[in-house]
Structures are given as structure tokens and as C-alpha cells.
From TrEMBL:
UniProt-listed PANTHER family: PEBP (PHOSPHATIDYLETHANOLAMINE-BINDING PROTEIN) FAMILY PROTEIN, UNCHARACTERIZED PROTEIN YBCL-RELATED
Name of the featured protein: YbhB/YbcL family Raf kinase inhibitor-like protein
Entry annotated with the keyword Iron: no
Keyword Acyltransferase: no
Family per record: Belongs to the UPF0098 family.
Taxonomic superkingdom: Bacteria
Keywords on record: Protein kinase inhibitor
One GO MF term attached to the UniProt entry: protein kinase inhibitor activity
Pfam (any one): PBP
Coiled coil: none
């Protein structure tokens, strides 16, 4: 995150910051049977120069040595300040660390420590990153990092 990035606010009708993620947002993969429903978001106060947004969900506590990208969306038009069931026209649902496109809810290992799921909305200085949905998450995150004007974050937790 650039030192110059301004903070703005994000809220969710599905989650209060720091609370456990409800089971309907958990994965329906591995040995979890959640609803795999992405978290709805609303944000405000982004920098005036914002030309587009990106949204990510990252688990820094995943036992991979590098965390785990659960969700990446980019090319959200600057005129949008919320994300519900459907992505706005032009937005790209990116590839997660499982290698599938779209949202992948949490499913931490049984008995592992508490996992934090950082959902971040990034205000970007470009309307598009010019990346296909198949872009690996680390490359998408790196490309975003060059364009961040501001960010807002809400964190959910899960332990099994």
C-alpha cells in the first residue's frame, strides 16, 4: 500500500468489521459446505481523482507462506459505490488462488488459528487495469499497486 494512499470507508450489511463471517459466505469447496456468497459492500469518501475501483479478499493467515487470495474484482467504474449480487457492467471477476474465476469463500483448516479475511476496496487512478479474468492473483495485485489512490478495508474472521 503506498504511503500516500488515503483512507475512506466501507461497510457491509453482511459483516461488521472484526466479526466472524457468516457461514453462507464460506466456501462450498474442500470440506466446507457454505453458501459461497460474496460479501455485499458499500463505500464512500474515496479520493476525488478516483477513476475506477478494485476489490480483493485476502487471507494473510493461510498456511501457505504467502497468504491466499479468495477474491479479486477490478475495473469497477468510478460511479459505483457498492457491490451487490451482480457486478457492474465492465467489471472483471478475477481468478482466485484456487485457480477459479470469482469469489471463493473461506475454509481454513480445522484446528488452525483464527484466520482474518481482509476485504479491501481500492480507489484507482485508472478506469481499467487492462487485465483478463485469467490473470494470476499476485500479478493482478501487483498491477493494482501501481495505481492506488486510496483504500477502505473491512475484516471478517473464521476459525474451524
Amino acid at each position: 500500500m503506498p504511503d500516500t494512499a488515503q483512507r475512506f470507508t466501507v461497510t457491509s450489511p453482511d459483516l461488521r468489521d472484526g466479526d466472524p463471517l457468516p457461514a453462507d459466505h464460506w466456501a462450498d469447496a474442500f470440506d466446507c459446505t457454505g453458501g459461497n456468497r460474496r460479501v455485499r459492500l458499500a463505500w464512500g469518501g474515496a479520493p476525488q481523482a478516483t477513476r475506477g475501483y478494485a476489490i480483493t479478499m485476502f487471507d494473510p493467515d493461510a498456511p501457505t507462506g504467502a497468504g491466499f487470495w479468495h477474491w479479486l474484482v477490478w475495473d469497477v467504474p468510478a460511479g459505483h459505490t457498492s457491490l451487490d449480487a451482480a457486478l457492474p457492467a465492465g467489471a472483471v471477476d478475477g481468478t482466485n488462488d484456487l485457480g477459479t474465476v470469482g469469489y471463493l469463500g473461506p475454509c481454513p483448516p480445522v484446528g488452525d488459528r483464527l484466520h482474518r479475511y481482509e476485504i479491501t476496496v481500492y480507489a484507482l487512478d485508472v478506469p481499467t487495469l487492462g487485465l483478463p479474468a485469467s490473470t494470476p492473483p499476485t500479478i493482478a495485485a501487483f498491477t493494482m499497486s501501481c495505481h492506488i489512490l486510496g483504500y477502505a478495508r473491512i475484516t471478517g474472521t473464521v476459525r474451524r
